[in-house]
Every structure is written in C-alpha cells, then in structure tokens.
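Researcher: I'd like a candidate sequence for this fold, 429 residues long. If you have to choose between options at a position, lean toward the conservative one.
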C-alpha cells in the first residue's frame, strides 16, 4: 500500500457532514426551530375564527405532541425498512415528507391542517432523523465511531440554534406563511441534492473500508465478542426498567415542554418578550445543549455515568426553581442551566440503557425506552397547552408544574443510584 493511498481523504467524513446537516435541517425545521412560528399561526387561526381564543393553546399542546408521537412510534418501522431500503433512499423520502409538511403548514387555515402538518413533520424524522443517520454513520466507522457520532448528534441542537435566527427576520418581513415556504427551500436546494448525489451507503461503494484504514483488509479476523445483558423480555419484567423509563419520560416531559412552549410563554403578557428576544432565548437553550452533550459525555468517560446523571438531574431541577420568580432576568438563568443539562441528560440516558441492561438486545430495549420517553414528552405538551387555556393563555401555572416533574425525576435518579449495585452486575455479566 503506497503512502499516497494511506493518506487519502476518507469519504466517511463527508458522510458525517451530510448526516450532521440532515439532523440540523430535519430537527431544526420540525422540532427546534418551528416554535418561532407558533405565535403567528395562533394569531391567524384565532382572527379567522377557525379556533376560539379559549382553545388555541390546547391546539399547540397537541400539535407538537403529534410530531413527537409519530417520530417515536415510527422509529422501529424505520429500523425495519432499513433492512430493505438503503439509507440514501430513506433520506430522500424523508426530505419529500418534511418539505411537504412545511408546505401544508404554510397553507394552514384550520387546526386540522396544523395537525396534519405536524404528523408529516414527525413522520419525516423516521426517514431522515437520528436513527437513519446513526445507521449510515455506523456503516462507515468502527474505531472512530464515537467521535463521528458526537459530531453528528450536534446537528439536533444546532438546528434549534440556527433556524430561529433565520426564520424570525423572515417572518417579520414577509409574514409567517412566506417565511415557512422560504425556510423549506433549505430542504429542496441543499439537503435533498446532498442526499441524492453525495450519500454513499457503505465504504465499499467507493472502494474503501470502514475508517479508511488501509490495514483493515490485512488484519486477522477475530471472533466478535458475544454481547451480554438482558433480553427485552427480561428487561420488561425487571422493576429497574420501569423506574428508568418513568424517569426518562418525566425528563422528556420537561424537555419537550421547554423546547416547544417556552417561546409562547416568553411572548405572553407576563414576560412580554418580542419574537426576536424569544427566538434568542431558544437559540441560547439549544446552543448550550450542544456543549452539554460534549461536557456530560466527557464526564461519563471519567466518572460513574449514574453519578453524573445525578448531578445533571439535580441541576435541571434547580433550574426550574426560576419559575417561582420568572421574569426577563431569571429567564436567562433558567436557559443557561436547563440548556446545559437538557443536552447532558439526552446523552446520559442513551449511555445508561447500555450500562443498566447490557448490549445483548440494546437496540430493542432502547427502542422501547424511546417510545415511553416520547409518550412522556407528548403528554407534557398536551397538559401544558390545556393548563394555559384554562388560565386564559397564561403559561405560568403550567411551567410551575415542571418543578414537580423534574423533582420527581430527580428522586428516581437517586433511586437508580441506590440500585446501582444490581445494575453493575448486569453490566459486568
């Protein structure tokens, strides 16, 4: 093997870049960035008489819940489809569904059209979201898979940073309908062509090997270690599983409510932020979550993951105490503390599934956990919307409830730490 061959650029890093871009755009347009449109859509629906003022917050409790539910429940379906379709084909289909969802949304005149748009947004995440991108990157990397994953998963947060900053000026200049069509061009002009022309499913498609390691062909074949741990059936019968998933559902309750409805709270009468100010807070939250993912991932490599999770859950609970005295100053204290720890808990929960239940059926167990997390998050946005409607559009009481939610989740993390001795046995077995 010549030196030039050994030093050639590895195409896997192009795949990492496209996968990061895919998560930035798909998550940014369906979850992280879409809340900047909510207040304007609400205004049109109420003004036209399509939705009574007394019910509009409930519409925007159910709508994001549909996105999360369809994304969560379609994840196992996407995993099955990947046995028959290549990742590139899945991503192309996802681009069309995501683009269609935004086009439907831009023409919404009823709550039913809003719901349909959110269903399409959630469905798109099953095709061009985390699962498909993770499988694609796994095909290209073995030794450097952790680094590749760390880069790619930042896309889920960067979407929430960038999309609000792009969309908000467009909304204020051209109106929300034109702005939504405008941001959808990111899909048609950037992501879709990248998926069609640049995505290669495996290194063999370009005559390469995983990690671009020229010695991989010469390395002696050794038997792969047999994964150990629980089966899905064993996990479902274990009290540990239900304590863990209840804890995860409560954490996602808080995460989904903050990511989807804080923007509406900030623009309400109590805080009175402008759309630009509210978008700035949302970008701050998602931006800090990027750092939180790296920071807590690093701490988990140095210390017990369960102990790191205890620290993160404690800080998340402390951040929600800001809602007792929520104003234009404490909102930033909340955004910093919650943003860091929302990113941290997202990573730590994935790691703890492997540590508590082993790798024998990790994918199946993680899928079950994901479904329950999603249900918790969806319940959060629905409950929050209904409480806000009951209080005349005021989100104060609904967000005070997050103190209870994060407090109970912290108590469960404490319980999981007390059960750590048993989980160590599972992890070591």
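Model: Candidate sequence:
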């Amino acid at each position: 093997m010549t030196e030039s061959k050994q030093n050639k650029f590895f195409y896997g890093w192009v795949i990492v870049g496209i996968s990061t871009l895919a998560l930035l755009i798909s998550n940014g347009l369906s979850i992280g960035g879409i809340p900047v449109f909510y207040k304007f859509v609400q205004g049109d629906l109420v003004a036209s008489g399509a939705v009574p003022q007394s019910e509009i917050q409930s519409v925007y409790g159910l709508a994001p819940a549909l996105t999360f539910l369809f994304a969560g429940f379609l994840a196992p379906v996407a995993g099955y489809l990947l046995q028959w379709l290549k990742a590139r084909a899945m991503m192309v289909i996802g681009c069309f569904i995501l683009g269609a969802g935004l086009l439907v949304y831009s023409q919404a005149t009823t709550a039913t059209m809003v719901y349909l748009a959110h269903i399409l947004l959630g469905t798109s995440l099953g095709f061009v979201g985390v699962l498909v991108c993770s499988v694609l990157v796994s095909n290209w990397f073995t030794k450097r898979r952790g680094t590749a994953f760390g880069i790619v998963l930042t896309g889920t947060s960067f979407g929430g940073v960038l999309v609000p900053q792009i969309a908000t000026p467009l909304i204020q200049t051209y109106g929300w309908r034109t702005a939504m069509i405008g941001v959808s061009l990111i899909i048609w002009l950037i992501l879709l062509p990248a998926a069609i022309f640049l995505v290669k499913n495996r290194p063999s498609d370009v005559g390469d090997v995983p990690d671009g390691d020229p010695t991989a062909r010469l390395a002696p074949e050794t038997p792969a270690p047999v994964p150990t741990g629980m089966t899905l059936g064993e996990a479902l019968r274990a009290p540990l599983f239900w304590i863990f998933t209840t804890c995860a559902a409560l954490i996602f309750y808080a995460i989904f409510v903050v990511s989807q409805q804080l923007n509406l709270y900030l623009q309400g009468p109590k805080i009175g932020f402008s759309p630009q100010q509210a978008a700035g807070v949302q970008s701050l939250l998602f931006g800090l979550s990027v750092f939180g993912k790296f920071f807590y991932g690093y701490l988990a490599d140095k210390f017990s993951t369960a102990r790191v999770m205890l620290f993160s859950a404690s800080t998340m609970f402390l951040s929600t105490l800001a809602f007792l005295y929520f104003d234009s100053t404490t909102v930033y204290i909340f955004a910093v503390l919650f943003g860091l720890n929302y990113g941290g808990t997202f990573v730590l929960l994935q790691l703890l599934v492997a540590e508590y239940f082993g790798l024998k059926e990790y994918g199946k167990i993680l899928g079950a956990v994901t479904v329950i997390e999603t249900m918790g998050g969806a319940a959060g946005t629905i409950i929050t919307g209904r409480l806000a409607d009951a209080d005349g559009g005021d989100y104060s009481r609904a967000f005070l409830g997050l103190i209870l939610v994060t407090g109970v989740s912290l108590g469960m993390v404490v319980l999981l730490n007390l059960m750590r001795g048993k989980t160590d046995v599972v992890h070591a077995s």
